[in-house]
Amino acid sequence: MAADAGVTLDPENTLYMDLPAGRVTITLSPELAPAHVERIKTLTRQGFYDGVVFHRVIEDFMAQTGDPTGTGTGGSDLPDLKAEFSDPSVARHLRGTCSMARTQNPHSANSQFFICLADVPYLDGQYTIWGRVVDGMEAVDAIRKGAPEHNGKVSDPDAIIRMQVAADAT
User: Fold this and answer.
1) Residue 49 in 3-state DSSP?
2) SS3 for 129?
3) Does this model's pTM top 0.90?
4) Residue 129: beta bridge partners?
5) Whether 65 contacts 113, CB under 8 Å
6) Residue 148 CA to chain centroid, in angstroms?
7) How would residue 8 be classed by pLDDT, with cut points 50, 70 and 90?
8) Which fold has domain 14-168?
9) DSSP at 40
10) Please, which residues have CB within 8 angstroms of residue 12's CB and are 6 or more apart in sequence?
11) Is the pLDDT of residue 4 over 90?
């Protein structure tokens, strides 16, 4: 997915996520989820996501990361966030959407997030959308997938090499 021609990205609301297969550019949506965007930027600036694996990746569904333990049960030391669900008429879980992972408790998002590998309309209004891949989706598609019989758990997972807020990029 190429960046839209003529669109100027706000460096303070753009992330660069370097993966083994290349750079992914994500535009943040503070108008949809201000607390979640701030959390992602805070953790990114702390280097929290650098080296963290995509522990759960399901073909034609999503790629999940953000757990420093790599088990799907970990998070940051920061408190969990209150849900900021979007009305599906405003934002939907389409291919390339970045959304927060959580437990059954809607107010349990912390550091884990997923990138939709396909349109996933049944997630609309139930998970907080905080951004969208605008360039480098081919690098996301190349992330190693997990076994369906193990709910997408990846045995030899790919990791985020480095994640940066574009305003801070070196």
Assistant:
1) coil
2) strand
3) yes
4) 99
5) yes
6) 20
7) confident
8) Cyclophilin (2.40.100)
9) H
10) 165, 166, 167
11) no
* Closest-CA residue to 23 (of 147, 139, 144, 156): 139
Q: Could you read off the pLDDT of 91-102 as tens digits, one per residue? A: 999 999 999 999
What's at 68, amino acid-wise?
Answer: P
Q: Which residues contact 155 (CB under 8 A, 6 or more apart)?
A: 146, 147
Joined tokens for residue 160: 């985020």
Dihedral over alpha carbons 29, 34, 36, 41 (to 10 degrees): 80
Structure tokens at 55: 């522990």
For the chain, the structural domain boundaries read 14-168
Contact 74, 132 (CB under 8 A): no
Q: List phi, psi (to 5°) of 34.
A: -60, -40
pLDDT at 26 over 70: yes
Place of tokens 């912390």: 110
